[in-house]
Specification:
The structure is a homodimer. With about 325 residues, chain A is of the alpha/beta class. Chain A is about 50% helix and about 15% strand. Chain A is built from 13 helices and 10 strands. In chain A, helix 5 runs parallel beside helix 6. The longest helix of chain A has 26 residues, at about 220-245. Chain A is globular and about 60 Å long. The first copy, chain A, starts with 6 loop residues before the first helix and ends with a helix. The mean pLDDT of chain A is about 90.
Chain lengths: ~325, ~325
């Protein structure tokens, strides 16, 4: 019901999703009449097993997470997570308020007993494949032990995606072993001595996109700064390119001739293809779609949710954590 | 003498610099015979007043900063800063070891008495103009008071560049006033109540390049992560574009036709144009060129040094700091 663009994005994404993945049954949670009228416009959803579960209230993007946790028990977010808790659904996808989704997920779904804090994790496009970056904002301050848990959870995501002994690095402001804060130094010690983790050392944020590491671990502040700085630069470059291509007749003509190539590039660099952040450490699958995600991006978040359920990511994380050191 | 590419980059940059700015006298500090043989290949430098000051040793890129500070008193870096200290030169530009340059600068040049810590500051290209980002790595942990001093120093840079009442923001992981760490909350209070600063609120790193703010203040870890993440993404995008343009005959032909436009774009997005980080808070001008800077980029660092001397940036900072609150 929320996100920057409201429920029509989710419905439109669902329309394409059910066509591609008829093995998944969708439940929409929110204002029944609004959702019903959107679904009625979609032949493929009408033919599908999709159903609606009514929720009267909505957590808005500006709501204080703890306030929402206390007061919005009739919100679509709460009701959807409640259905996940009871096992009526296998995963929950939301484009709503990140902090509220995290707070409600911790309260209703709970983390595994070994996990102190869930982490937000996202796959980033790199030169050759994907790199998992976590935490992206769930935890501002992390202890070395938290970072070790993030490393374990990120390794599981890379492993279920087919990577053998994923290379795990700690984000730092230098790659030399003696660099960084006390927390990073201690985390490095923990990771070096943890046989479950293929720790390779510190990495600078300039190398996030190099493809050298499969998992990059950091506290939520650093991860958030790195992710958003790269998003900001991408927007800046796209704007520069677009302005340059409009500058004069030759450039405009060229941009017309180049349109298939520009479309290829847009496709390859499309952030929609990387939408869908996982809340790792929860006992069930909760996926956060970007607040401003369009239909294609939201569809990708649904794909991520389906994969994580099929690959039993939460159970794999529990197994890895329980496997001792 | 150092940097990733050695002295030939500095000499080649100097060659273009003396042609453009005959008002500046250059002194090269380092191995005399090596520098002499490089200068002899340059007619414009031979005609200029450039001179050489011999230094037998070099701080290498991998040297520990404090070790270099204790042991490398015959290095080109030390000798250059010593000449700056005595007033024989007005500014020092180096592409060498950042940590060593910072440690030696603090020891030899010293900060103003009011300044607890110098900050590394760089102008970033934004949609319309420049934004000054600091600290970029000199200080891993900062107090609210340090961030306030960075805000003052960044404001001075923007002011001498012609901005009236520069808009100052604090980097955070959300733009809402209640977000972030305790340090950021306290820094916000200090900035709100400081009449010397036009504080506008928190900014997320996705908006660094938006051009909305003139000065963005953060601790050195966050600034370093933001700067390098954006550099990493820029490299990733450039590689994707280059691969796409080589993919097939049509694309290769297109890239040939588009070469003037691609050249324009490369020019506008060229990181060389933003090279040259200032060590603010020192009593004299020290400029750090990127270790991998090419000749054009190093030339820009020289331009920054000249501007800051002419605009009397250190003195302006002292004046602003001394002006009370």
């Amino acid at each position: 019901m929320s996100g920057d663009l409201g429920p029509r994005v989710a419905i439109s994404a669902a329309e394409n999703f059910v066509a591609a993945h008829p093995d998944v049954d969708l439940t929409f949670v929110g204002d029944r009449s609004q959702l019903q009228s959107l679904i009625e416009k979609s032949p493929s959803l009408l033919r599908s097993s999709a159903c609606i579960f009514h929720a009267a209230d909505v957590v808005s993007m500006g709501d204080d997470p703890l306030g929402a946790l206390r007061q919005k028990k009739n919100s679509s977010m709460w009701v959807a997570l409640e259905r996940l808790r009871t096992g009526e659904v296998d995963a929950c996808v939301s484009a709503g308020n990140t902090g509220a989704l995290l707070a409600m997920s911790r309260y209703l779904i709970k983390t595994f007993p070994e996990i102190e804090r869930p982490a937000i994790c996202k796959s980033m496009p790199v030169t050759d494949g994907l790199t998992y970056l976590l935490d992206l904002g769930a935890n501002i301050n992390c202890s070395p032990f938290h970072l070790q848990q993030f490393a374990l959870m990120g390794s599981v995501l890379a492993e279920v995606a087919g990577v053998v002994a994923p290379r795990v690095a700690l984000l730092n402001i230098g790659s030399e072993a003696q660099k960084g804060t006390e927390v990073l130094q201690q985390a490095q010690e923990l990771l070096r001595n943890d046989l479950r983790i293929n720790y390779v050392g510190f990495v600078e944020s300039s190398d996030i996109f190099s493809g050298h590491d499969h998992v990059i671990v950091c506290d939520g502040f650093h991860g958030n700064v790195a992710l958003k700085a790269s998003e900001g630069l991408a927007r800046f470059v796209a704007k520069k390119i677009s302005l340059t291509l409009q500058r004069n007749l030759f450039n405009r003509l060229l941009s017309f001739i180049a349109s298939p190539v520009l479309a290829q590039l847009r496709e390859e660099l499309n952030p929609s293809l990387y939408n869908g952040a996982s809340f790792l450490g929860l006992q069930k699958t909760v996926i956060k779609s970007h607040g401003s995600a369009d239909s294609k991006a939201f569809m990708h978040a649904l794909v991520v949710a389906r994969e994580q359920v099929l690959l039993r990511v939460p159970e794999q994380i529990a197994r890895k954590l329980g496997s001792g050191n």
